[in-house]
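re: ur question from yesterday

yeah so i grabbed the chain u mentioned. its 153 aa long if i counted rite. heres the sequnce exactly as i have it in my notes:
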Amino acid sequence: MTTQSKRGKSLNLVMGGVFVVFAIVIVAVVMPKMSSSSTGSSGSSSSVPPGVIIGVLAVLALLVLMTLLRTRRGMNRIAAGAVQTTEGPAKTKARAYADDNQMSTMPIYRLTVGQVTFALSGSQQLDAFEDGATYRCYYLEGTLPILVSAERI
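ran it thru and got these structure tokens back, copy pasting raw so excuse formatting
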């Protein structure tokens, strides 16, 4: 779990760096060219005012910062390894999810033990649980709980 946390933090740093480089290129290269082309030409200009570009960059920077902080909190929680348990009868559920165009379907597998619902990656995981049997599950808290281990009791 610590390795996954470190990888997530590294990926966050890389993505933050890409955003900073992108912003620097816009401010240092694109905006001066836009300013010079709009002042040097006669007639109406269809270029975007520099204030709008700076405003958009500020909003994007805020979104990137919020995403980085949220992901970092999640990675820290996983690294802390606060494993939780739940017990109870298993309720399995498999259904097909169709996209808006009804062009393709994607199966969704869910397992509920006690008050916690887990998203499973495939039918093999779902088939390992018997509906109505009592299980003790170990999991990590997250946006979706991450099932680490389960045992029948």
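noticed a couple things. The chain has two domains: 2-39+48-80, 83-152. also Residues 99 and 105 are 6 Å apart (CA to CA).
anyway ttyl
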